[in-house]
Amino acid sequence: MNCINTILSLTVYPFVATLVVLMVISKLWCFWCRSKVCLVGKTAIVTGGASGLGFQIALGLAAKGCRVIIADIVNISEAVEGVKQQTHNQDVIGMKVDLSSLKSTREFAEQVLKNEARLNILICNAGIASYTEKVTTEDGLDRTMQVNYFSHFLLTHLLLDLLKKSAPSRITFTGSLMAFISTINVDALNPPAKYFNRITTQLNGGVYSNSKLCMLAAAKMFGERLKGSGVLANATATGGVKTPIYWNSAILTDRNYKALALMALVFLYGKTPEEGAQTLLHLAHADVQDVTGKCWSEGMVIPSPSILTEKFCQKLWDYSVEYTKLQPQEIKLYPLVSFIAVITILSKVWCFWCRSKVCLVGKTALITGGASGLGLQSALGLAAKGCKVIIADIVKISEAVDEVKRQTHNQNIIGMKVDLASLKSVREFAKEVLAKEERLDILMCNAGIALNKEKVTTEDGLDKTMQVNYFSHFLLIHLLLDLLKKSAPSRITFSGSVMGFVSTINIDQLNPPAEYFNGLCTQLNGGVYSNSKLCMIAAAKMFGERLKDSGVTANSQIIGGVKTPIYWNSAIVQDRNYKAFALMLLVFIYGKSQEEGAQTLLHLACADDVKNITGTYWYEGMVVSGPGKLTEEFRKKLWDYSVEYTQLQPDEIKC
User: Fold this and answer.
1) Are strands 442-445 and 300-302 parallel, antiparallel or unpaired?
2) pTM here?
3) CA angle, 314 then 320 then 325, to 5°
């Protein structure tokens, strides 16, 4: 037995551990598109959009409010319904195209030009795997080469006038890492039957690799010729994605030991279709700073295959024109100077990211503290989905509004001033919202300050931190509750904090006396700031219970260690002692960016899987247990004191 254990410890266990580590690394370093650009008013075509990468791209674009045309040959209506259901974007249509037929490709282009006034994004994505023998289309071309490359070359030319008219616009080509091992002969793009032997197919991917090399070349060729036209062209080199095209490849259909090994590798380390689509989505709408003609992988520019010389590309262009039977008047391009190489290395840290595909066009959100920190990132995230966003703050409002408009291209952003340190200001603000807004779908109670070193009292006789962070939000919800109910289903989110778990709150001293503010209390448990965040966590439970079945949900995010202004202005950091230095160092190394910190709030604000959940506490995208102090008795007392301190009248208490 000892001998067996020794053998296992020296062989099997290290091997399994290595597999697990590699799996974790492959997930941690996966690129995700973080673009905040709203695509309302834009139109995109996705070839092969009914499954695999194409379907995930359609989801991603539709979630940003884009009109999406899913172009495929099968399962089109199912894909359209799937995208509509997941994103709530009804501006999604399907069109049939058979890319193995040049005639069908031309008819599809004619239909698009007839029906569509604009085309901002053309994603040339459709593809099929190599065959173990030559399959010829009605046009006399190899089927894999025609579907994967030639028809996309033709389609791009046929739609180019519309793309230029809609500029700035983009073309993306789905390439593959397999292109880097292609042994293509540019003078035999339509390969003879003898090319299809098992060795060629298994060692370098055969015609599939060649077709994907041509797609990478297409980005370079169109990128150079379209420079200055307002149309960008780029390609992605994807690989190891668990899509139907992979499982149907020639090497896997052989079912031999090589197939088994490849299947195991992709099963263990391969990307999901959603992960594989991220760079394509990035190229489709993110700010890529006019980069064109490049090959991208994992969100960054990489060198193209060395075979793509100027001579190769010129030959490929000429043969492509010949094989696709393009007429001189259909070639709408002009040559320009060569490109400048750009390589950006991105490092990513694992954390929860909101993946909701729900489109928020027609919805209205109000974010307190929306001019900076988590509030600004929440505004960006919602605006990117087409939502009307009201940024409520006391300073830098116009700058924040302009920034959100600039980053998201969503012009339906307004700013409103509110001083949460004044109950009078909160009431005036609520009155203005009710007078101007017909609906309110999302209320994000986010604003907060951190003043703990000494007591600061507001004009209402309340501690300023408690009033800004909690009491004014309690009042604001009551004043806006009728509008939230009218707009149901609607949501309320609260920005809590892990500091709420270390609060030593005295429920009978929510407005603490001056002696509460001593150095020991402030530094060990966050003082009044921690108390205010505990109350915000409790608010989710209190409103969640009282609003059940009203169509309004209430949930709280529990956050911590985010590099926001509220952190740098906290009392402990302002002390500038060794404790402050240690805390600053920890947050600098391990703390989240503001964008990362806002992800659970965005999830609570719009994700479909939260729509029927209420009165819960969330951390890193999942429900967690709240602080032990939040008993039913505690919550009852907190509610009663809150009504008293906010001077709510009986007719204003709507739940």
Assistant:
1) unpaired
2) 0.76
3) 135
619 strand-pairing partners = 622
Q: Which of these, 118, 111, 148, 120, lies nearest to 61 by C-alpha position?
A: 120
pLDDT of 550 reads: 95
Cis amide bond preceding 244, omega within 30: no
Task: State the virtual CA torsion across 250, 251, 254, 260 in degrees, nearest 10.
Answer: -140
pLDDT at 518 (0 to 100): 62
When pLDDT is averaged across residues 138-158 and rounded to a whole number, the result is: 94
- 520's tokens: 């020991």
Give the β-pairing of 616-619 and 622-624.
antiparallel
Residue type, 639: W
Dist CA 408 CA 604 (whole Å): 20
Contact in structure between 464 and 449 (CB atoms under 8 Å) = yes
For the record, the structure tokens of 270 come out as: 């391969």
Are 542 and 639 in contact by the 8 Å Cβ rule? The answer is yes
CA distance 511 to 54: 56
Quick one: fold of 364-648?
Rossmann fold (3.40.50)
Q: Which helix (H) or strand (E) holds 230?
A: none
Distance CA(124)–CA(146), nearest Å, equals: 13
- Do domains 37-330 and 364-648 share one topology? The answer is yes
pLDDT at residue 32, as a whole number:
85
User: Which one is catalytic: 319, 323, 470, 529?
Assistant: 529
Rounded to whole angstroms, the Cα distance separating 81 from 312 reads 43
Q: What is the pLDDT of residues 150-181, one digit of tens each?
A: 999 999 999 999 999 999 999 999 998 888 88
Residue with tokens 């006399």: 140
| Whether residue 578 lies in the annotated active site | no
Beta-bridge mates of residue 367: 391, 444
Question: C-alpha distances in angstroms, 37 versus 204, 249, 423, 641?
Answer: 38, 36, 36, 43
In the three-class reduction of DSSP (H, G, I as helix; E, B as strand; rest coil), residue 436 is classed as helix
The domain limits of the chain are: 37-330, 364-648
Homologous superfamily in CATH for domain 37-330: NAD(P)-binding Rossmann-like Domain (3.40.50.720)
3-class secondary-structure state, position 136: strand
What pLDDT score does 347 carry?
A: 32
Which residue shows structure tokens 């690394």?
A: 25
HEC secondary structure over 325-353: CCCHHHCCCCCCCCCCCCCCCCCCCCCCC
Identity of the amino acid at 563:
K
Per-residue confidence band for 260, with pLDDT thresholds at 50, 70 and 90: low
Task: Give the residue from 431, 376, 285, 289 showing the smallest Cα distance to 602.
Answer: 376
CA distance 132 to 202: 9
According to DSSP, the residues that pair with 493 across neighbouring strands are: 444, 555
Peptide bond into 328 cis (omega under 30): no
- 83-128 confidence digits (pLDDT tens): 999 999 999 999 999 999 999 999 999 999 999 999 999 999 999 8
* Residue partners of 653: CB distance under 8 A and separation at least 6: 478, 643
Q: Single out the residue of 613, 86, 601 nearest to residue 379, CA to CA.
A: 601
Size of the chain, expressed as the number of residues it contains: 655
From the centroid of its chain, how far is CA 306?
A: 33
Tell me phi and psi for residue 290, to 5 degrees: 60, 20
End-to-end CA distance of the chain: 68
Where residue 626 falls among pLDDT bands split at 50, 70, 90?
Answer: confident
Q: Per residue in 49-68, pLDDT tens?
A: 999 999 999 999 999 999 99
What is the DSSP code string of 31-89? ---------TT-EEEEETTTSHHHHHHHHHHHHTT-EEEEEESSSHHHHHHHHHHHH--
Backbone region of residue 42 per phi and psi (left: phi > 0; alpha: psi in -120 to 50; beta: other values): beta
